[in-house]
What does this fold into?
Amino acid sequence: MVLSGFLNAMFGCTHKNYSFPLTPKDRHSCSAAGTTGTYVVCLGCGKEFPYDWREMKVVPSDAPQPEKRHEAVKSFVNPL
It folds into this structure.
């Protein structure tokens, strides 16, 4: 336990273990949920990450919202 805390302090957390995806009732109550509406928490360090239910993966916090990504794909596939 002490060794893992020391390694985490020296090199940072690897974020390999996450909680089950959480969806708060109020998107504004959690900054990580603001991107997709759902987030996960790293069980090693407690950092929150946006989670995309459709893709079933953690997404970068600066990624576009899923609805906007799908609209971009639709316009690419079916140009006007």
